[in-house]
Amino acid sequence: MAHFDLPPEQLQSYRAAAPAPADFDAFWAQTLAEARRFDLNATFTPVRTPFVTVDVFDVTFAGWAGQPVKGWLTLPRARTGRLPCVTEFVGYGGGRGLAGDHLGYASMGYAHLLMDTRGQGSGWRQGDTPDDAPGAGPQVPGVMTRGIQSRDTYYYRRVFTDAVRAVEAARAHPEVDGARVAVAGVSQGGGMALAAAGLCDVQLCLPDVPFLCHFDRAARLVDSFPYAEITAYLKTHRGRSADVFGVLAYFDGVHFAARAQAAALFSVGLMDEVCPPSTVYAAFNAYAGPREMRVYEFNRHEGGENVQALERAAFLARHWQP
């Protein structure tokens, strides 16, 4: 696909016009307060793997409504003192996978907590966390419209709450330096990183080609999935667009970005037909903290891939010395 979105010079200053709902902050404060009524109960069980340079732990912690959420914690075996930690979130349809699937950050000398995504983990990598979703109404296959009838029942209310609790679980481990915690992810994981950075205190944020940003533009600009789940729902539920986008406004990465203070490294593919460049720039230009962007002019949703991995490594090294 050739460039289809705004010209680069317009992208650099593009902003979403719609403000956050007036009670956005109150809604999230109440949501997180309800989650914190449950003990975090973070557990880290050692797992035997064939890898000799890292130690892996099977993680369980209490997420939304106290429901158990799984993850992996990976630590460099040769470690002294408390380590900075990257809390990472997974792309759409994927799960936490297997112990030892995620060695990069620990190999750099950091602690790494990878959160499983509730109700996903069968599209391209295994998951182990169910989504207990009371009150969910009709939906298009996938999770983009699960519980879309209300902000209280919408799927990403539970997921973003889990993400904040994952940061808290990382900080609960005695070998993690709670003053040096980053959030990171690609696509859906990038959108979740923005949500976590906007909802809790972290030091660094690394959202690559982030999904879940500027829903109203994305759903009208591209017909690719997962955003096409929203358009398919509205094609059937005619006349509900104002209600649907009203709910989605509480989960828009643009509004979380406007509340985030952590230093951030974004990336974007200018031919990305899954997460259109203007939606990424809408979050980037709203971002309240120090921010940098890496641009991949001829890439689609794969973005910078291994090149961006090295950019992330350099960014972390500039801020942390493990």
From TrEMBL:
Parts of the chain that traverse the membrane: none
InterPro entries named among the record's database cross-references: AB_hydrolase_fold, AXE1_dom, CE7
Domain Acetyl xylan esterase: 1-318
Region feature (Disordered): 121-143
PANTHER family: CEPHALOSPORIN-C DEACETYLASE
Name of the protein: Cephalosporin-C deacetylase
Organism: Deinococcus caeni
Organism placement in taxonomy: Bacteria, Thermotogati, Deinococcota, Deinococci, Deinococcales
